[in-house]
Write a structure and sequence with these properties.
single chain, 330 residues, mainly alpha
Length: 330
């Protein structure tokens, strides 16, 4: 399927200011975390690292990649083969960690068009809908974990934020077609040029509306929820085993809260490279709140970032290598 590049925003390679600002923010936040590290304590943490527990964490990350690929396949109308969805997800997660700000999501639109055959508007709506499912399920997990903590921390403000995000996501999902129709109506009032920016946005919105009406089926909702639950159970399990591998020795519910809150940090619209900086600073603060010393919290957050950073490259290599072997075996 030929790609109409005029429908997409400018490439990240043509936005040097975005790269510079994102890099500076990442360096600043990362530097603040590194400054708190005690090298001798970090060496001890590395020496005590449980490699078998780390391997289990990698298996859960791999399971997350597989369930996410199946969800991409579902949201593409179950038309492409699962292998194509795996390839799309391999590129998707790679772009998420190497591109600044939210450009990984924009690059994913091209990925879904190329590998799953979705038009750009449909691909964008697919990503948005999946993100809404993520907020709902992760928010529910976060609320359950907060209730389990009881009086250990003040959970009121965090519970309110989670409830607001869940409620907004549910409302948007339920009335998705209405939101798109209203957006198209507004653009029609502004539409004056046949080939201007507004015309391109209208085309994207119309494609998205067709997708929401004819591809997102009500009978697919249970499977979408199940795959989303599987994705986040795998992700949270991977983080829990990473905490165990580092011997942080936090109680179970505190581990779950930290893992869920760490994923919530990804929602913050701060320009960084693949979330580097904001993730480390946020996780360090979360671990300190749970009673971990600042130097150990900083060291643990950097080691966890290292694992999360290299996994997309490992996943990409496994998927591409596996698909190539499958093609040779035919």
């Amino acid at each position: 399927m030929p790609m109409d590049k005029n429908l997409l925003p400018d490439s990240a390679t043509h936005r040097p200011l975005l790269w510079i600002s994102a890099s500076l923010i990442s360096i600043f936040l990362l530097g603040m975390v590194i400054a708190q590290i005690d090298l001798s304590q970090m060496q001890g943490m590395w020496a005590r690292l449980s490699w078998s527990t780390l391997a289990i964490a990698f298996l859960f990350l791999l399971l997350e990649g597989l369930t996410t690929a199946l969800r991409l396949w579902l949201f593409a109308g179950k038309k492409p083969c699962v292998g194509a969805a795996l390839k799309a997800n391999a590129w998707y997660v790679l772009f998420l960690v190497i591109l600044p700000a939210r450009l990984g999501e924009i690059a994913a639109i091209v990925v879904l068009e190329r590998h799953l055959g979705q038009k750009y508007g449909a691909a964008a709506m697919s990503i948005i809908a999946q993100r809404l499912y993520d907020v709902i399920i992760l928010g529910v997990f976060f609320l359950i974990a907060l209730f389990g903590l009881g009086d250990l921390i003040d959970t009121n403000s965090m519970a309110v934020i989670a409830l607001i995000l869940i409620s907004l996501s549910v409302c948007v999902l339920i009335r998705l077609d209405l939101f798109l129709t209203f957006a198209v109506y507004l653009l029609q009032k502004l539409h004056t040029q046949k080939y201007g920016l507004i015309h391109k946005l209208m085309r994207l919105l119309l494609q998205a509306r067709i997708y929401s009406r004819h591809t997102l089926k009500h009978h697919d909702i249970p499977l979408a929820l199940l795959l989303t639950i599987g994705k986040w159970v795998s992700n949270l399990s991977a983080l829990l085993f990473l905490f165990m591998a580092l011997h942080l020795e936090l109680p179970f519910f505190e581990n779950v809260v930290v893992a869920a809150a760490y994923n919530f940090l990804a929602i913050i619209p701060l320009q960084t490279i693949g979330g580097i900086g904001i993730g480390e600073a946020g996780l360090t603060l979360l671990l300190i709140k749970m009673g971990i010393t600042i130097s150990m919290a900083a060291g643990a957050s950097l080691m966890i970032r290292f694992v999360i950073l290299i996994f997309p490259f490992i996943f990409w290599g496994l998927v591409m290598g596996g698909l190539r072997l499958k093609d040779k075996g035919r």
